[in-house]
Amino acid sequence: MSTPTKAEVVIGVSLPGLRSPGVGFEAPFEMLEACHERVQRMLDLLNRLRKHVAKNGCDAQAVDAAVDVMRYFDLAAPLHHQDEELHIFPAAMAMCNDHLDLLILRLRQEHLRMENLWGEVRQALARVAQEDANTKSPFSQAELADMDAFISIYKDHIRSEEGLVFPEARRALKPEQMSVISREMIRRRGGEVSV
User: Fold this and answer.
1) What ranges do the domains of the chain cover?
2) For the domain bounded by 6-188, which CATH number is listed?
3) Residue 140 phi/psi, 5° resolution?
4) Which terminus of the chain is less hemmed in, N or C, by CB atoms within 10 Å?
């Protein structure tokens, strides 16, 4: 099970039990769903960080939270999107369903939109991470709007993937294809793959 970060505990993010506590890359869909849970936790932390900074300024807890959120969306989120783009979306599109194809096109566009929004959100978080205790509320209205958009698009995106795309991709993939996906996910993360 994923343990909460120090910032999640201090800032007070509610940590629901993970649906897939001990999942590994041998179960790609379960791993992707576990990643979605982690995304939700980081989005909750971002939201609570905003409130914390407005009340307490850029204190040590705010710095820890900003660093945690940046680390996750800098490192794990791009790999997660790559997993979906390379393996899940093509498998779902193989089902030849026009409605699903349009949804996947939208999801791909959302990946790009999230990446662009992340650049804006990250700049604001980087200022918090520099721990300027004299700054009571370092976020501009535009930055807060970017954070709102980032949180909203991710939450809708996850619902569409888990509710529609993942089930279809699961149906399309054979066990040997799932093994290949598992090995490639591990390799992209710098892990060793035993053959």
Assistant:
1) 6-188
2) 1.20.120.520
3) -75, 165
4) C
